[in-house]
C-alpha cells in the first residue's frame, strides 16, 4: 500500500484528514513544504489527526523540513484537542463487545 498525502482544497482553505498515518516520503515532504510556504499568513489550513503533535516530526520524516513545515503551520495555530468516545463507535450499529478496546 503506497503512502498518500491527501488534502482537500477549497478557495480559502486546505483540510488534511488522518494526518500522520504513515511517514511522508521525500516528494510528499517537499510538496507539503511548498503548500505550507505558499499558504503561510494568507489562508487557512486545517489538520485533523489522532497523532499527538509531539510525534509530527517523525511523521514528516526529515527534521530540517519538519522544522520549516511545522514553524509555518503551528506559528498561529489554534489547537482543538478532542476527548471522549469515537463518534463512529457512538453512532455505529456494533454492540459494545464488538468494538475494539
From TrEMBL:
Top-level taxon of the source organism: Bacteria
GO molecular function, one term: ATP binding
TM spans (from-to): none
Pfam families membership: IstB_IS21
Domain annotation IstB-like ATP-binding: ranges: 3-90
Protein name: DNA replication protein
Amino acid at each position: 500500500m503506497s503512502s498518500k498525502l491527501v488534502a482537500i482544497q477549497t478557495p480559502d482553505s486546505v483540510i488534511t484528514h488522518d494526518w500522520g498515518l504513515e511517514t511522508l516520503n521525500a516528494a510528499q515532504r517537499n510538496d507539503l513544504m511548498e503548500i505550507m510556504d505558499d499558504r503561510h499568513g494568507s489562508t487557512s489550513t486545517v489538520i485533523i489527526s489522532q497523532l499527538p503533535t509531539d510525534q509530527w516530526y517523525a511523521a514528516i520524516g526529515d527534521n530540517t523540513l519538519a522544522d520549516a513545515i511545522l514553524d509555518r503551520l503551528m506559528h498561529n495555530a489554534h489547537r482543538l484537542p478532542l476527548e471522549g468516545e469515537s463518534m463512529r463507535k457512538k453512532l455505529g450499529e456494533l454492540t459494545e463487545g464488538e468494538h475494539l478496546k
